[in-house]
Structure formats: C-alpha cells, structure tokens
Amino acid sequence: MIRTPLSLSVKQTCTMIKKGTITFDSPIQRPPGQWNQQKKSDLIETIFRRFIPDFYATKIRGEKVNTYDIIDGLQRFTAICSFLNDEWELTEVKPVTLELTGEVFNISGMKFSQLPEGVQDVIKSHILTIRTIEFEEDEDEESLVEEIFYYLNSGVPMAKEHLALISAPKNVQEFCHRIATEHDLFVSIAKYSDSSIKKSDKQMTIMQSVALIAGLAYESFAAKHIEEVFAKCEITNEVLEQTEKAFTAIADTFQNTHKFVAKINIPIMTYMFAQVAEGEKELVVSNLLKYVNEDMKAGDKYKINTGAGSVKKEKVMNRINAMLDICGVVPKVKQEVKPTFEDIQSVLNEFKNDDTVINNDNVSDTVETDIQSNQEVINESTDTTNDAETILPESADNTEENAQDDGIEVKEFTIDDIPDTNDELEDTQEDNQDQEQAS
Prior knowledge:
The chain is of the alpha/beta class. The chain has 4 domains: 2-154, no CATH class; 178-327, no CATH class; 347-381, no CATH class; 396-438, no CATH class. It is built from 19 helices and 7 strands. It has helices at residues 10-19, 37-49, 74-84, 117-125, 141-152, 160-167, 170-182, 184-189, 194-198, 201-214, 223-231, 237-254, 266-274, 281-295, 313-327, 341-349, 363-383, 396-405, 422-438; strands at 2-9, 22-23, 55-60, 67-72, 96-97, 104-105, 127-134. The strands form 2 sheets. A 5-stranded mixed β-sheet has the order 1-7-3-4-2. The protein has a two-stranded antiparallel sheet with strand order 5-6. β3 (55-60) and β4 (67-72) form a beta hairpin. α12 crosses α13. The N and C termini lie far apart (102 Å).
C-alpha cells in the first residue's frame, strides 16, 4: 500500500469533482445529503477558525490523469461544493475575521455569491488534504477499503440499512450503488423521502428484491436480518441481471412517479415481474395498473399486509401471493422461505418431553430415541392405560381354556381394542368380569 498526501485548494477540488477526476463511486459510501444546514454552516465557519479534517481516497492511475475515489469525506466535499454553487445559505454563525487585513464580517444567512469578495477568496483558496492510498498487486483492495472505512467511521452512528449493504458481497454492493444512482426506477419514479435516502433505503429495497429473486432464506425484511442473509451468501450475476430486468419492467409500467412505487411494494413487484413469461407481460401490466389505479382499497388482500409489521416474513409472503393473484401470474418457481436450522430445531423440540436443546450433532440420535420411546409407550399401552386395573384376567391361558369348554369365543386383543377414554375402559372391564363369572 502506497500512501501519499495530496493538497488541493477548495476551488481546485470542486473543479476536479466536476471533471470527474475526484469520484464517489465506492459502493460502501453513504449517500450524500446526510448533513443538515447547521452542520454544513459549521463546516464553512471552520475554514476561518481551524483546519478541516483530512479526506481519504484510493488513487487510480490513468494513462493521462489519475482519478481519486473518495473513501471518507463525501459529506464534506458535497457541502463545500454545493455552497460554492449557491445551493444553500448559511445559518447563524459567528462573525469571521480575515487574517491578512483583520477585517471582521458578519456572514450569517448569506449564500456564497452574497459574501464579501475577500471572504469568498479565503474559502476558495483554503487547502484541503486528501490522504491517497494506492494498492499494490498482491493486496486485497476490497477488504482494506472496508477496514479503513470502518476505522474512520467507528465513532459515527451508521444506519442499519447501510451496514447491511457493507455486509453484502462485492458484486451486490456495486449493483446496489449503480441501480440506486442510475436506474430510472430509483432516480425518477420511486418515491423516497430525503431521510430514507440518507439511511440507504434505496439500497435496502434493492437488496430485498435480490433476496427474493435468489430465493434466499430470510427471517424478515428488517435491515438486521437482511444483513445476516447477505453476510453469508453468494449472488450470481444471473440473479442480478434478472433483478435489473424486473426493475426495468416496473419502470416501463409506471413511467412517472406513482405512490404505489414505494419501498414496501417494489420488491414484491420485482419478484412478480421475474415470474412473468414474455407473452403474458401485457396482460399482467394491465391487471397491475387496474389494481393500483382503480381496485386498490384499504383492507383488501394486498393492502391488509402493508400496515404495522409489514417486514415480517408472513406479511411479505402474503403480499407476494396477493400480487401474483391480482396480476394473474402463476410463478415459475414457487416462492418459499427455506427453513433455517433454528426452524428445524424448534419443530423437533415440540416432540421432546423435556427442555433439551437439539443441536447439529445429536439431531439423528434424538429422532431415533423419540421413535423408540413412542414405540415403548404404544407397547405398554397394550397392557395398561393410566394405571387402571389390568384389562385381561391374571391367568389368560386358564381363562381361554375354560371359555372354550363352555363354548365361549375369546376374541384376540389388539392395539385397536385399547379404549380411548376412561368411560370405555370401565365398560370393557365390566364385560370382562361378566365373562369370568360365566366361565
């Protein structure tokens, strides 16, 4: 790893961002817009009072010009450059003093273009330091970048949705980043609030959709469970291609912003379109638009599963089945959640008479023991039930001989003859006593 500092003025930095030589393509970067106006104003004020913390980037050598992909610092870069573009005004900040002239200016509530020329010059000429990292051929770039990112953000709260993205395989990270920033469905059609974008809800929607297309076993659609799923799986490019194709089908269906194209519904529609044969697509689109524009109402078979607890596995499955039914789609492959070991363990433990926890090593032994125990219970039940008196007389052989002498037919008892209730047991005992007397 080759580490070198790069010093650039604010003006140079913003120019390089416009030209694309400073990029923000790392899939583990949080989306821009995380900061509120006060925090951005504090950053601008920092230029006049202290140093802005260093930025970190990977250096990518090019034939003519090098590119720097930012690992840490996206929020600061976008705040500074958007201020120079007059996109927002400062909040209430302390008056600033120019070091060269000693002049004091009150800049509260101003956009960049409204600042005194001397103040503008100080901001544009302020030096920013970018710590660049150039990886050598034998180094694992992916794991090192993630390690640096975690280290730099260890004290900063991070949304669970973004942590889930970081846990995913590299190809899924790149797929989520590209789709969230370039695909029409997520750029111009789907409805996402500013706060949901900040916490990576777009990426979470994409990951949920991939999970359905891939048929992954998930406990729920909650971010922590999606993180667990993607932390231990591999996703083929074929699955990602199917997912993107389904996203395009949704975008082609709605074309413009629509309230139904929201994070709770997109994964369901994605799975549904992935099941549609090409010749059936037109009818499916017609059925879907009819439902969302005319037939949809509170409490119907789809909407009833979109309220509280909508991330639960049961409600996700109910939405899928309702969507398939509404659009007239017969799935190519039945969507079902693959059981986890914990699911199997829970079922097996229901047959236990104690609280023993079954693990991977003793599942087979436990099942065999249960079968033997049940057989012993059946065998014992042939002779006795609930500690009642013995159904047959003590000397079965003598009783049979006496019965034959008197011409009485003795029926052979089987397990089917065991009474199911105490009343039947008493009746049977009385009949046997009568037989003994007759003998």
